[in-house]
Amino acid sequence: MPLPEFERVHRIQDEHLAPGLLNVVVFGPGRGESCVVRLPNGELGVVDGCRKTNDPTLALLESLRGPDSRLAFVALTHPHDDHYGGLAELLDRWSGRVGEVWRTVYGPRYSEQLLGFVSAQRAGKRGLLPDERKLHELRAVLERFQTVRENGTGKLMIVERPMLARTLSGSPPVTVTAWGPADWDYERHSQALVRAVSALSAPRGDHAPPKVDPNQASGALLVQWGEARVLLAGDLLRGTRPDSGWRAARSLAGKPVQVVNVAHHASEEAHDEELWGMMAPQLAIVTPFMGAVGTQPPRPEMIKTLCASSAVVITSPPKWAEKASQQGLRVVPVAGSSTPLRPSEVKRKNAARAGHATPAPSSSAYGAVAVALDHTGEIRRVVLSEEASRWEASPA
To answer: At 319, is the pLDDT very low, low, confident or very high (cuts 50, 70, 90)?
Structure first.
């Protein structure tokens, strides 16, 4: 089915979502990512959080919020600060109005180990987790999740596990299913954490402590309404064996998946070519990490790979945007109330970042894409905001 004409707005609000359809909004303001899901019956859900201050997720939810509004679910795919940023405040603002919280391996005992591990790094053994400077917010997020879970409303994301089901009058039901992590990834990550904690408690030796990477056990969620399917992929990696990573999800890909929020900022290590071919998505949404500086994803080569089979939207400009034509890529013009940064503006921004290993994220917090699908799987509306732009491979 052909895609609708893309629209551009300054900021995505209630009026840009389609009533009675499945709506998904993906924010990617230069570092993190957050997804807001509005089901056809109006229920809301949030997957991950992208920033602690000037949070676009909170702003959108406020525009959608009615006197009786609730969040059907809040999910944390894994504890990296570009995925949990802002979730503590969100849960505070919606206190008593959150139906369920979903997580992967991050239960109470795991949380104690993780926070102890981060504290040890802050004491001088650094470099194993990128969240060490975000200890207080991570603790706050985990505490809020635990508060909701104490009411019996917490679920563990494991591949193939049903997370939510809603029966709708006059249309197919809506379901959300976990597509990750696999059991083996869960066990491998837990064992890695135990080894790392043990190493940190031992006298310092000549060997570096083992690495702990929460991406190994990242969650992923498939939202389905009739023939409409949207994959919110978190940072789940490709996998090292048939029962891990995206390889474990291949058996679930029996039907097309029209929209994919691409895993791990479209890094090569998270791309499973066979699964991508099975899903055959019409629209791929990419959120750059740290402006795609240096080796940070997405790299132009992966965008070209995605463009070969899907329409591609990047939510904020990557550093290499100024030289995209040299990489065989170009931005597709989208008419609307605002336009993406001109190449000269991208160049000025990148020049301001020069010399910084970890540059500031995009100046806009509102780079996002909103997609609406009907139950036949037809994409009915695509709205881009702020610096989000559509990309395609340049003609040879």
So the answer is: very high
